[in-house]
Amino acid sequence: MDNLVHLHDPFADHIPEQVEHWLARLPGAIQIRLNGADAGRTRALVTLLHGNEPSGLRAVHAWLRQGREQIETQLATNLVLILANVEAARTPPLFHHRQLPGLRDLNRCFRAPWTDAPGRLAQSVLATLVECGPEAVVDLHNTSGRSPAFAVAAIDDARHRTLAGMFCNHLIVTELRMGALMDSAETLFPTLTVECGGAHDPAAHQCAAEVLRRFGSRPSLFSPQPATGTLHVFHNPVRVELAPGASVSFSTEQPADVILDANVQARNFGVTMPEERLARLRDGQAGLLSVRDHRGRPVFGELFRISDGYLTPRLPLRLFMATDRADIARSDCLFYIARAH
Questions:
Q1: pLDDT tens, 39-77?
Q2: What are the required cofactors (predicted)?
Q3: Given this structure, which CATH class describes domain 5-234?
């Protein structure tokens, strides 16, 4: 698991029709290098940093099945493809584990220390990117719940806005640094995370395929493009997490400290108005949640109030990345929020 394997010729053997069969045959985390029209430039696409987010893998698999000649005539530049958390993805049940049980989230490991297996794999991914010197990196993900596609960047500039506008209509810009690939690579090359939508949504698979096609084939990534719609930009959404030791569920039939609205993921990118209930808190305790901005400042009271034991917005809020999986809500976060505008 510790290092990327260079799959020198992915076309040497027949690529199975089923993505699950191809995944089972992979030697582990891999990199694939393909030649394009301009050999002096390289782009890189990273996916499967989380084993429960298969849309990027499905897109790469379907694309490679076209064959070398068909693919390389489409590519504007050289392209490096990285499939990272192969072991987590194929550990039963298939496409269920965000990371291998007992190990750190790979997309929180792109900064020192590099002492464990996920850290060493993250270091290997970074070393590969530095060595190939891409003009841009796209990190392709699925959202934890149902959601429209959106992009995330660490810097708000014309390059990142142009890249995001190629793929979707929403861009989140955050100064929060958590050890994600986007954080560490940002000082080296433009890096954009693209969240394609829910892991089991066919539209998300189609979105991932389109991201790969556009990213690989467009002659110039950063020249002005015809407008495909308005790009809505949101700055520094606040991360809402469980307090240490708190429990979470989505049903009153499963008692927990925090019982989230069962349909909370349907609120992604919509506006939640004051007095709408987001969660029930045991004994109305605000301390069951950690609500801090990107500087670490507690902002619960600015954004929320507790009414009859329920968490409600104090002002119109827009939610992102809400999930219906308790394990992800517990290990990562409940959702992100921004003031609606």
A1: 999 999 999 999 999 999 999 999 999 999 999 899 999
A2: Zn(2+)
A3: alpha beta
